[in-house]
């Protein structure tokens, strides 16, 4: 479900929609090291739906290996990419260095997938656009972005191909957000799509929408009773800000306690929420606007040395750290120290794909490997339903059903197989023609363009 990349060849013009890294199990992550299926220099344009690394994280390699064209995205995504790709490169450098020092890599001198210099090659190529702004990629192809509601700046993508037979509309949903997020705007469905690429993360699923204030109130009360801390692995983009929103609300009902945001990237992203007010639901001055990010209980931890001192805090604190899937970042050293403590609670705030440490911990295993060591799991493990930045099954069906005429072909992507199958079956019952494409599969969308 990760590593999103879709290459369209329209006559002699080649456009790549999304350019993500594979995340999850080793078999998936190994694909990041495979040669790109074509010479990157032959690609004419890159279009990104949003900034998450599974949609953007391969860009440094693409540019390093010869891509020299524009990278089109929304204006907030342009800013976010500079934060996320810098962080991605630094993490890979640090992890390769640490693996070399500790000797738990099978390589004598482990190398990062790419470094900071590679990431910096991307930034001059970024071209930011407003929603619903028509962009001419060439004389026959017009691009536009429209609101996807997933994270700050997230978009669905519309390509209109002008042919002698009329216009052909190819739509990529990107990651579609829920309708009622308190943080992000509701997604906007397309009016028309001849060919549709639709994400299927929650196909067949209707996550139970918990009362977040009640859940946080219970978890924090239980932490106090056990004299422990609440540790929250959270994505730096979107999820951390949403958790801060709910903590602000629950602290209207109970005494607050220090909340440490221990992620330099999350800190930088939070500043962008203040910069781009019109791109989310929060408005300053209404009692729960973006000033909640500067509440007295929020403490931003920038320095690595200070991050390490948080392990000495035994109770009455919340630590939010990345990554949300526990695949890297500062959360690793927190869990290394916290998982063996029965007093602490680890609260997962998002979906944990197969093969990630987060999935291992959440599935009830007794230990998990961190820094090459098997770490015992004695902490209480909890998860939140309803914080996802993805639309559920019904919302995906409603989004798709808003299209005026059924697409000629719908490709169900970005979901585990059972999720894609469930959405495919539901759409098929309404007369849709759906396909679950395989990795590397090639299709002819139109006989003549």
Question: How would you sum up this structure, described in words?
Answer:
- The chain is of the alpha/beta class and 449 residues long.
- It has 2 domains: 248 residues, Metallo-beta-lactamase, Chain A, CATH 3.60.15; 172 residues, Rossmann fold.
- Helix content is 29%, strand content 21%.
- It has 13 helices and 20 strands.
- The strands form 4 sheets. A 7-stranded mixed sheet has the order 6-7-8-9-10-19-20, with helices on one face. Strands 13-12-14-11-15-18 form a 6-stranded parallel sheet, sandwiched between helices. Strands 1-2-3-4-5 form a 5-stranded mixed sheet.
- Helix 6 packs across helix 7.
- 45% of the residues are buried.
Largest sheet: 7 strands, mixed
Strand order of the largest sheet: 6-7-8-9-10-19-20
CATH topology category name of the largest domain: Metallo-beta-lactamase, Chain A
- The proportion of strand residues reads 15-25%
Query: What is the total domain count?
Result: 2
The overall pLDDT, averaged over residues, is 91
- What's the count of strands? 20
Examine the secondary-structure arrangement and name the CATH architecture of the largest domain: 4-Layer Sandwich
Note the total helix count. Answer: 13
Indicate the radius of gyration in whole angstroms.
Answer: 22 Å
N/C terminus separation: 30 Å
Structural class of the secondary structure composition?
alpha/beta
According to CATH, the homologous superfamily of the largest domain is Ribonuclease Z/Hydroxyacylglutathione hydrolase-like
Low-confidence stretches: none
Instruction: Give the fraction of residues assigned to helices.
Output: 25-40%
Outline: globular
Return the CATH class of the largest domain: Alpha Beta
């Amino acid at each position: 479900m990760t590593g999103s990349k879709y290459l369209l060849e329209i006559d002699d013009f080649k456009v790549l929609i999304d350019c993500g890294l594979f995340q999850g199990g080793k078999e998936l992550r190994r694909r990041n090291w495979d040669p790109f299926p074509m010479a990157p220099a032959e690609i004419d344009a890159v279009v990104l739906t949003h900034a998450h690394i599974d949609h953007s994280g391969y860009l440094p390699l693409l540019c390093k290996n010869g891509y020299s064209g524009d990278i089109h995205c929304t204006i907030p995504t342009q800013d976010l990419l500079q934060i996320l790709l810098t962080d991605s490169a630094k993490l890979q450098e640090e992890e390769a260095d640490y693996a070399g020092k500790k000797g738990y890599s099978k390589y004598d001198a482990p190398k990062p997938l790419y470094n900071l210099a590679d990431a910096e090659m991307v930034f001059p190529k970024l071209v930011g656009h407003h929603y619903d702004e028509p962009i001419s990629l060439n004389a026959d192809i017009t691009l536009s972005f429209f609101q996807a509601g997933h994270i700050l700046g997230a978009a669905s993508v519309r390509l209109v191909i002008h042919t002698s037979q009329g216009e052909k509309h190819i739509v990529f949903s990107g990651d579609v957000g829920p309708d009622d997020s308190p943080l992000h705007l509701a997604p906007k469905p397309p009016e028309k799509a001849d060919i549709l690429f639709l994400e299927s993360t929650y196909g067949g699923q209707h996550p139970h929408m918990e009362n977040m204030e009640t859940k946080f109130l219970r978890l924090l009360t239980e932490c106090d009773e056990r004299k422990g801390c609440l540790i929250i692995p959270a994505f730096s983009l979107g999820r951390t800000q949403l958790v801060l929103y709910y903590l602000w609300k629950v602290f209207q009902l109970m005494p607050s306690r220090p909340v440490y945001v221990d992620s330099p990237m999350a800190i930088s992203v939070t500043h962008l929420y203040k910069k781009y007010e019109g791109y989310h639901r929060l408005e300053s001055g209404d009692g729960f606007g973006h000033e909640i990010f500067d509440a007295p209980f929020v403490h931003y931890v920038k320095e690595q040395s200070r991050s390490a001192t948080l392990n000495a805090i035994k109770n009455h604190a919340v630590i939010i750290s990345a990554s949300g899937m526990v695949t890297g970042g500062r959360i690793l050293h927190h869990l290394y120290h916290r998982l063996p403590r029965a007093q602490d609670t680890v609260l997962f705030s998002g979906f944990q794909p197969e093969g990630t440490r987060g999935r291992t911990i959440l599935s009830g295993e007794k230990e998990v490997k961190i820094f090459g060591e098997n770490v015992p799991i004695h902490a209480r493990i909890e998860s939140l339903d309803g914080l996802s930045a993805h639309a559920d099954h019904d919302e995906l069906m409603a989004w798709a059903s808003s299209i005026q005429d059924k697409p000629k072909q719908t490709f169900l992507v970005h979901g585990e197989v059972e999720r894609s199958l469930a959405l495919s079956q539901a759409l098929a019952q309404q007369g849709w023609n759906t396909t679950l494409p395989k990795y590397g599969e090639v299709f002819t969308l139109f006989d003549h363009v």
